[in-house]
Amino acid sequence: MERTVICKVTDVPVNGLKQFESNGRKVCVINAGDGFFACQAACPHEGIALCDGVFDGEVLTCLEHLWQWSLREGGEPRGLAAAPLEMYPVEVDADMVYLKG
Ligand code: FES
Predict the structure, then answer these.
(1) CATH number for the domain including 40?
(2) The pTM is what?
(3) pLDDT tens sequence across 60-97
(4) How far is the CA of 55 from the centre of ligand 1 (A)?
(5) Mutate to test the pocket of ligand 1, among 39, 50, 67, 69 (most ligand atoms within 8 A of CB)
(6) What distance in Å separates the CA atoms of residue 92 and residue 28, rounded to the nearest whole number?
(7) CB atoms within 10 A of CB 74
């Protein structure tokens, strides 16, 4: 499967979120400590940058209006969230994080 480098594993601290751009697509990369997630960069509510939110090891919270999603359950909405989060498959190889597909 084709893959595109998105960042180094050291670019995002544990439980941190950071926005990157790959092939013209903005992506929010999350370091869960035991792996990485990638999702749409803009909140599906009003488009605020999700990298300004917080991640507690399972749930990503947009701090603008507190919509939440379980990243370990594929971006399923939690609490107030009325829409799922679009997730992108990632792969870690050596010290790099790749977007797959
Ligand atoms: S913009 Fe993210 S919850 Fe409203």
Answers:
(1) 2.102.10.10
(2) 0.95
(3) 999 999 999 999 999 999 999 999 999 999 999 999 99
(4) 15
(5) 67
(6) 15
(7) 13
When divided into structural domains, the chain yields a total of 1
At 51 the three-state DSSP class reads: helix
Domain of residue 11: give its range. Answer: 3-100
**CA triplet 90, 72, 38: central angle to 5 degrees?**
30
Index of the ligand 1 atom closest to the CA of residue 66: 3
Q: Are 6 and 51 in contact (CB under 8 A)?
A: no
Q: CA–CA separation, 51 vs 34, rounded Å?
A: 19
Residue nearest atom 4 of ligand 1, based on CA coordinates: 65
2: which 2 tokens? 């084709």
